[in-house]
Every structure is written in structure tokens, then in C-alpha cells.
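User: I'm designing a mutation panel for 1-aminocyclopropane-1-carboxylate synthase and want to avoid disrupting the core. Could you give me a predicted structure to guide residue selection? Please restate the sequence first so the numbering is unambiguous.

Assistant: Good idea. Sequence first, for numbering, then the predicted C-alpha cells:
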Amino acid sequence: MLGTFAETCDNVTYSRSKIGIYYRESSPATVTGENLAYFDGWKAYEENPFHPIDRPDGVIQMGLAENQLCGDLMRKWVLEHQEASICTEEGVNKFSDIAIFQDYHGLPEFRQAVAKFMEKTRNNKFKFDPDQIVMSGGATGAHETVSFCLANPGDGFLVPTPYYPGLDRDLRWRTGVNLLPVTCHSSNGFKNTVAALEAAYENAHEANILVKGLLITNPSNPLSTVLDRDCLKSLINFTNDKGIHLIADEIYAATTLGQSEFISVAEMIEEIPECNRDLIHIVYSLSKDMGLPGLRVGIIYSYNNQVVNIARKMSSFGLVSSQTQHLIANMLSDEDFVDQFLSERKLRLAARHAELRTGLDGLGIGWLKAGAGFFIWMDLRNLLKTATFDSETELWRVIIQKVKLNVSPGGSCHCHEPGWFRVCFANMDHQTMETALERIKIFTSQLEEESLNRTKPMAKKKKCWQSSLRLSFKDTRRFEDGFFSPQSPVSPSPLLRAHT
Ligand SMILES: Cc1ncc(COP(=O)(O)O)c(C=O)c1O
């Protein structure tokens, strides 16, 4: 059931020579998804980032799923709790205890505080056992470790589409496993259906790929949707019936807005007594719910003791530093702060969501009605020349080059239908959001004008967004070499480079 690595890890059979072969055989860009427009958008932004004074014509970054709306609350707490930092006068007496060697179990107070936080962000309806928590370098590291634990190179995980583009890198890059798309459709709000799961499972079977699990992201990135009780139950039953694992990425647990209710897989399994819990694993991190992606606090919560043991050993390669553990243990144990932070954060996110939503509604631009995450799934299907991904890319190039907004095209999220775009809204200030909406307004009115001109027989005016669609980078070599800046979501693998 588990991957070879997992099966042999306890006997210290760590060699995986097959993985090396896998690297050489696979095209790096295909495996990591580096060639997707999602990452091109990042490059364009890095070339010419928007600044209200220095670069008012620069690209506005709307491709970054980060909440920067609550940094002030976080800074205030850090300033008021200098004892939580070991590099301050108030905290330095703990320096030696914290800075000495720490093993991969993690500080007990850290795991306890994280377990409590995970309960809070799931409405305190059930308990998490701190002993089942394994640390990792963000959810990124958690995904890879789980993938290593559960699958062998060549095995596959079902993943409903569209999905977060980073998963190609996180689950596949070094493990050599496959991601098997489960096609979801806009006609039913991109719902995960058992029929679609069965079809993808069958396809894998025909392609001789052993399916080891189903990976869901709930709330969804990029859709912003949350799975309802019935759907979640059907996914648990499907995976249990097939005897495969269910990995729930719940990194956006505390980002629901309005009527949306997040239900954790941990809550659902309480209602399914016959569920085989050995098959259930949660991936979590503090990157989204606490807005701390730079601290790389990732969590694997597994109900399977074998996975916990092995993942813990593997976590040596991606531990959360004890300095960060100490800070986070203190911060999350301050329940008053956490409560206030979460409720204020909800208000600010809701206000920003409403701003973008209202702006799009006012311009007659559709979006998937959902309320979670830091993004809106925008529907521009009616702006495509043809219902193809080439047209989507063409439109995306116009949006980035002419409108100067870096949004993520649905194709980069493996969406099955062209014309959808993910628009992030929480990584900028109010003024920048206003500028972004203003640019969209100008763009849509230009399109209207062009369509009017087209109806006039003499009008030979070319669509302004049809010309010069290719992005031009000042120094293309930089990107051809596989160079990505530290802010870029994907960096090239030194292993891959060594082999090519
Ligand atoms: C669904 C999902 N999973 C995992 C990650 C990676 O998160 P982390 O920064 O904790 O590695 C992201 C980041 O955007 C994400 O959206």
C-alpha cells in the first residue's frame, strides 16, 4: 500500500537509484510545470513590477496567493512579545536551549500549539493529536514527503482539475510519481463527482499506472470553492472502496468568506465510523491561514502511524528551524491574539473580496460564485477568439502585456475548459487594487469600442490587443537558462542541471 521508500525505510534501505534514471528520462520543464504560462507571468512581473510612483505602468501582481492584508497585526504582536524571539534582550536567555540540536520530532510545545490552531481553524469540532504531526518545509515539503511515503516512481495520484500548478513540482519533481487529472466541468461549478473519479481511475488502469491515492485541495486553489459534506463523504468512500489514500490539502482552511463553510476531512471521518483512517492524510501549513509563507511551517497530519514514523525521519531534510518553532509556539498559544487575528483577517479579506467582486460585476465580467482563498476564478470565455488554449494564451498575453496584470490562466492550472483566469486579491494594498480594476475597466471599454467598430463596414481598425502578442523580455537568456528569482514559485533543480 505504501511506497517502496516507506516499506524499506525502517530497515534503513535508503537507496533509490531508480529516481536518478527518472530524472534523466523526464523533460525538466514538463515535470515541474515550469513551462506553463503561470510562471511566464511571474517573469513578466519581475521584469517590470508595478509601483505607484516609480513604475505606474508596471505589471500588477495578481498571480500571488498571499494574504498581505494583516502584516500590521503580526508585527504588533512580535513587537509586544519580544520574549518569543530568541534574538532579543527579553528572549536571549532561551537562545542556547533553542539553538542546540533539535531532533525531528519538533518542540512539544510547537506541536501542541499547532494542533490547537488546527482545531480552531476547523471550528473546534474535534481534536488533533500532536503526536501525529510531522513538520515539513511548508506545504510544499509536506506534499513531497507524503508522495515519497505513499508511492513509487511511476505510480499515480488522482487530482481534480483545475489544480494549483505547484503540485506538479511538489508531488512529481523528485519522486517520479504521476498526477492523473480528474476532469471537472464548469457546468456544475467544477464539482468533484464520483463518475469523473471512476473515469480517471479507469484511464490510469488502462495506462498501467497504479493509482495510490486521491489528492484534493479544500478549499480549492484556484476555484475558491469548498467541498460540501456529501461530496467529501463520497470522496472518502470512493478512496476507501478502492483501498487508496486520500490526501487533503487544507492549507486554506481559515479563508472562507460569507456563507461558505469549510468542512475538514478530519470532521467527516468522525461521521464515517467504518472509514479506514490509515488511508487519510492532511497537508497543512501556516503560509495562508497565518500569512507566514516565508517561515516555511508545513505540517503533515496522518492517521497512519507508519506514515508518521517514516515522514518524521524524512523530515530531517526539511525541518522547521527551532527558532521558528519557538516563535510560533508562543504566538499560537496566545489564544486571544489568534482569535482576534483570525476574525480581523476575515473582515479584511471579505472587504477586499467584495471590492473585486463588485468591480467585476459592474463590468459584466463573470466569476465562479465561491468564497474562499485569496482569489477569484474569473470567466473570460466570451473574450476568446476560439474556445482553445491557444486563444486563452493569446488573451493572457494581452492581459499581461497591454493591461499589465499578471493573472494566472486556467490552462496553467490544468483546467479542462479554456477562458478561466485566477485573479489574486489579497497581496496588494487598496490603491493597487483600484488601479487594477481601473485597468480592467479601460480594457473592457476598449473591447466594446472595437466590437462596435467591427460592425461598421469601413472600419479597418485592428484590434489593439491582436497586435504584438508576444511577450518581450529584456534579457531572455536569463530565463532560458532556467534562472528564477528567489520570489519565483519554482526554482530549477540543481540535480536536473547536473544531468543536462
Ligand atoms: C493548494 C496549495 N498547496 C500548497 C501550497 C504551498 O504552500 P507552502 O507555501 O506552505 O509551501 C500552496 C501555495 O500557494 C497552495 O496554494
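For picking mutation sites, this is relevant: Residues 84-337 form a domain with the Aspartate Aminotransferase; domain 2 fold (CATH 3.40.640.10). Residues 65, 138-140, 164, 166, 217, 221, 249, 251, 285, 287, 293, 298 surround pyridoxal-5'-phosphate (CB under 6 Å).
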